[in-house]
Design brief:
By secondary structure, the protein is of the alpha/beta class. The chain contains 13 helices and 13 strands. It folds into 2 domains: 30-280, Type I PLP-dependent aspartate aminotransferase-like (Major domain) (Aspartate Aminotransferase, domain 2), CATH 3.40.640.10; 283-389, Aspartate Aminotransferase, domain 1 (Alpha-Beta Complex), CATH 3.90.1150. Bound molecules: pyridoxal-5'-phosphate (PLP).
């Protein structure tokens, strides 16, 4: 493999795409694959597609592909639903594993939906659980003997700050807590070793660095030694031992299959399955090196050419994921001005300009080109225009 692999993506002409951390671009072959799934499979095979085209096995088949990227063995990852739901499934299973403990630890760098889902689950259980949310830097010290679960997102969606997965998992286990990792900004961005970490659960989405497309299904990993004993909170029929026996009583399927819920989104799953083929050719170590090289170049160039922007990401690449963020008071407007000029990043309130570095389709020339445009926008105050200052619904 040589990076980048630009010819494997359908990127619009003249665009420098620095938002693959939020929505990956369209890989070549996906449009054709969806076309075939629609016309040949759905259109031609009708309901026979569930068997003839392997739709029913697809969530596990694609799960194995995701597993390879996160260091998880075959049969330990399954696809489905959205990440929010997978957080709920993992947390409810984790709480059931520690019935005598009532505290969950997370941090305020977590993506809000993870915290909302935890609050909702706790409220709904009504067992007096408590969600403790501390600063990311305080997580290690806050891991105490009363915790049932430690639930963290490895890479901070705003700043790219990265937790030490092995060390935190080890500490969580030392106090007897269950460990859940959200890999939303890790899978396809940094090397992950689920087996080596020994964590009980991991969850993540596939529309970011894995390029599965908007609405692509999420994934959940359960450590193989636990998969037969955890009790699914979302006891759907496709997680049943024998869905087509149509029993009135729920019996969980063996292994990871019990984390399935209902009918999989076959068209989205087909897009993802095709998009995942690229990863067969990617060495994660090499990808990480390239990502750090691009990120470092970006930081250096912005700091020399764009006074007024403050680095919001860790300067040390070893504790940074594959994105770089800068604070700028007029960050929203500046990002709109950038996007209007073909450099696509995004904005996270209150003042974060966020740039993702995805070496599959970015090179140093892109980085230099993006910074040149950003510098011009700031120098000439090109952001100061009504069309850039008004907020849109999705930032
Ligand atoms: C992107 C992201 C989500 C999104 O959840 P969905 O249910 O897929 O909308 C959740 N958690 C984290 C940490 C994320 O980065």
């Amino acid at each position: 493999m040589t990076l980048p692999m630009k010819d494997r993506f359908d990127l619009p002409e003249g665009v420098i795409y620095l938002d693959g951390n939020s929505l990956g671009p369209l890989p070549k072959g996906v449009a054709e694959r969806i076309g075939r799934a629609v016309t040949e499979e759905w259109g031609g095979q009708l309901i026979k597609g569930w068997n003839a085209s392997g739709w029913m096995a697809q969530p596990s088949r694609v799960g194995d592909r995701v597993g390879r990227i996160i260091g998880a063995p075959e049969g330990s990852v399954v696809m489905g639903d959205t990440l929010s739901l997978k957080v709920y499934q993992a947390l409810s299973a984790g709480l059931q594993m520690r019935p005598n403990r009532k505290a969950v630890l997370s941090d305020n760098g977590n993506f809000p939906t993870d915290l909302y889902m935890a609050e909702g689950l706790i409220r709904h259980l009504g067992h007096g659980h408590e969600l403790r949310v501390v600063d990311p830097e305080q997580v290690v010290d806050a891991i105490t003997e009363d915790l049932a679960v430690v639930m963290l997102t490895q890479v901070d969606y705003r700043t790219g700050r990265m937790h030490d997965m092995a060390a935190i998992t080890e500490k969580a286990h030392a106090v007897g807590a269950v460990m859940i990792w959200d890999l939303a900004h890790s899978a396809g961005a940094v090397p992950v070793d689920m087996t080596g970490s020994n964590a009980e659960f991991a969850v993540g989405c596939t529309y970011k660095y894995l390029n599965g497309g908007p609405g692509a299904p999420a994934f959940i990993y359960v450590r193989p030694d636990l998969a037969d004993s955890i009790s699914p909170a979302l006891a759907g029929w496709l997680g049943h031992e024998a869905p087509f026996a149509f029993d009135l009583d729920y019996r969980p399927a063996p292994g990871i299959e019990r984390m399935r819920v209902g009918t999989p989104p076959v068209l989205q799953m087909s897009a993802l399955e095709e998009a995942m083929k690229i990863w067969d050719e990617v060495d994660m170590g090499e990808l990480r090196e390239a990502s750090l090289r691009l990120s470092e170049l970006f930081i250096a160039e912005v700091e020399t050419q764009c006074p007024g922007l403050d680095l919001a990401s860790p300067r040390d690449g070893a504790v940074r994921g594959s994105q770089v963020s800068f604070r700028f008071e007029q960050g929203y407007a500046a990002m709109q001005a950038l996007i209007a000029r073909g450099v696509i990043g995004d904005f996270r309130a209150p003042d974060i300009m966020r740039f993702g570095f995805t070496p599959l389709y970015l090179d140093e020339e892109d980085v230099r080109g993006a910074v040149a445009i950003l510098a011009e926008i700031l120098r000439d105050r090109l952001w100061d225009a009504p069309e850039y200052l008004e907020r849109q619904r999705v930032t």
